[in-house]
Design brief:
Layout: E1 2-5, H1 9-12, H2 19-35, E2 38-41, H3 44-54, E3 61-63, H4 77-87, E4 93-97, H5 106-120, E5 125-129, H6 137-145, E6 152-154, H7 160-169, E7 172-175, H8 184-192, E8 196-199, H9 204-208, E9 213-215, H10 220-232, H11 234-245, H12 250-266
Parallel strand pairs: 1-2, 2-3, 4-5, 4-7, 5-6, 7-8, 8-9
Helix pairs in contact: 4-7, 5-6, 5-10, 8-11
Length: 267
């Protein structure tokens, strides 16, 4: 039996998902992991979590990275402006991509955005692309209390082509989640040529490498400073991200999965 485990957030942060999913992670996943002949996971961070929380030996776990789909790619300036005209009245914007619940620290993004606007007096908007899930009252409260609530646009869940266009047209992706097994939006942003600001936590430093700006999600001044940094020198961070994205390739990952399958079959 070969299984894949992306992360253990329900074990580490049990309030982050509904009860039925929690039951699987608390009761069935440990059984399946113990019974499995081999386990695939998506980062060295997740591998260490599996070793620690499920008591699985290191040799039984292989790390195989995810990658972004081809739909995520840079856009020409004219196309970017069309997207901005459609969603944010032609203004530049930052984007958060992912589900909206407390462990994602979306409330911190909103508070840092407020600080950024007050300090640098720009015309930027903040676009939130994702569904509210689980406990998310902190984000809703931060939106209500924001002095710039009219510049916070909630687009909810969108189909992939629209998400790819929104991501490629943003001045930066901001993801401050405290726990992620991989962080797919980071790689998607890199491949789209969009600078990345991410929490210096869980798998993000591993995935971002030297291409993103890593911040303390609790330090709003640090986050606001990073937002200013990417608009001052966008080309540098865009180019670094495009180079970093090449480290994540589905063909390479597929070969690694096939090698794992072949080894099990040959035993």
């Amino acid at each position: 039996m070969l299984i894949t485990i992306h992360d253990l957030s329900p074990l580490v942060l049990p309030d982050s998902i509904p009860g039925l999913y929690a039951y699987y992670f608390w009761h069935l996943l440990p059984l399946n992991a113990a019974r499995a002949d081999h386990i695939l996971t998506v980062s060295r961070f997740s591998k260490s979590e599996i070793e620690q929380h499920l008591k699985i030996p290191s040799k039984k776990i292989s790390v195989i990275y995810n990658a972004a789909r081809d739909i995520f790619r840079p856009l020409v300036s004219e196309k970017k402006q069309t997207i901005r005209d459609q969603f944010v009245q032609g203004n530049p914007y930052f984007i958060y991509l992912g589900s909206i619940h407390d462990r994602k620290n979306v409330d911190k993004i909103i508070q840092a955005f407020d600080l950024f606007i007050k300090k640098y007096n720009t015309s930027h908007y903040l676009l939130l692309a994702g569904k509210f899930m689980g406990r998310h009252q902190k984000a809703k409260q931060s939106i209500r209390q924001s002095a710039f609530a009219s510049r916070i646009i909630q687009v909810g869940y969108l189909e992939d082509p629209k998400v790819a266009s929104l991501l490629a047209s943003a001045d930066a992706l901001i993801n401050l989640s405290i726990y992620e097994g991989f962080g797919m939006p980071l790689v998607e942003a890199f491949q789209a040529g969009t600078p990345v600001i991410a929490a210096a936590a869980s798998s993000y430093p591993e995935i971002a490498g030297q291409a993103g700006i890593l911040v303390d999600p609790e330090d709003l001044s640090n986050v606001a400073g990073a937002m200013h940094q990417v608009i001052v020198n966008p080309v540098q961070f865009s180019n670094q991200g495009i180079i970093r994205a090449k480290e994540f390739d589905w063909e390479k990952s597929a070969r690694q999965v096939w090698e794992s399958i072949s080894l099990l079959v040959s035993k």
